[in-house]
Amino acid sequence: MKVGFIGLGGMGSGMAHNLRRAGHELVVHDLNRASGTPLEEAGATWSDSVADLARSVDVVFTSLPGPVEMRQVGLGKEGLLSALRPGSVWFDLTTNSPAVVREVHEASRKHDIELFDAPVSGGPKGARSGKLAIYVGGDRQAFDRHGAVLDAIGDQVLHVGEIGAGNTAKLVHNCGSMIIRMAISEVFTLGVKAGVEPAALWHAMRQGAIGRSRTFDRVGDRYLQEAFDPPSFALLLADKDLRLALELAEQLDVPMRSAQLVREDFQEALERGWGGRDSQTPLLLQNERAGVAIKLSPDEVRAVLDQG
């Protein structure tokens, strides 16, 4: 298969190299001409423009800074849609706006081009090693026909829904990761300021119940199933522990803004009479605010976990 790759930065370069190693005939382009040299040495061909590249390939990948650049590369003068042959496939690896992806997808369909939004997670190291999650949005039947090429660049290729769903999943993942990291830094500063050595504290945290589990897996047993009764750890007890932590933070003058927000939700849940339910019960408040219903069966949860 003849594959084009546009955008040879920290992520794109590693993914392009892996496509070449997989045996694909590769054509590359970037605004920085020098970025193509290592790939040429590996057997790829350089193209001087987006349009010239598009005319010569069956599948094109773009790995760009953001929505503005992706729209320009696709829809601009001498962009991809001006030159790709009907029936070609475009995987946009950019972390992008779902709205922009849908806009470009509509334009692509008019040119008989199949666009997938396929943002990746794993960082430059993962891009080089092939240890990447790829969140794919687009037509399922088209994905089944063309998605195998993604195996060259990622070890977790996940079709998550229609066009735009890939970036929705990526943005949800990243937002959650940022909040969790801030929460970890918040409680870590509390422990260190209270006198625990950082290495000892980190070791202790990693051996606890959450530390031994994949962080996102913990919501599967309670929250995603709305299974709060009987509790494994009652909200009333959890609130007591949180209150004690905040009291210690106040004593030590450690800001705990995220924890304060969590406490507000705990208090609202307690006022509703949920103190005897599981400590994950306050997560229902977010469901209410967002106006969504979330409930998986135990079999559905198990099926997701069995995927690894």
Automatic annotation (TrEMBL):
Gene3D superfamilies recorded: N-(1-d-carboxylethyl)-l-norvaline Dehydrogenase, domain 2 (1.10.1040.10), NAD(P)-binding Rossmann-like Domain (3.40.50.720)
Give a GO biological-process term: organic acid catabolic process
Q: Which SUPFAM superfamilies match?
A: 6-phosphogluconate dehydrogenase C-terminal domain-like (SSF48179), NAD(P)-binding Rossmann-fold domains (SSF51735)
Which family does the record assign? Belongs to the HIBADH-related family.
Q: Which PANTHER family match?
A: 3-HYDROXYISOBUTYRATE DEHYDROGENASE-LIKE 1, MITOCHONDRIAL-RELATED
Q: Where along the sequence do coiled-coil regions lie?
A: none
Listed Pfam families: NAD_binding_11, NAD_binding_2
Q: Does the keyword Nucleotide-binding apply?
A: no
Q: Which UniProt keywords apply?
A: NAD, Oxidoreductase
Q: What's the protein here called?
A: 3-hydroxyisobutyrate dehydrogenase
User: Which molecular function terms from Gene Ontology are attached?
Assistant: NAD binding; NADP binding; oxidoreductase activity
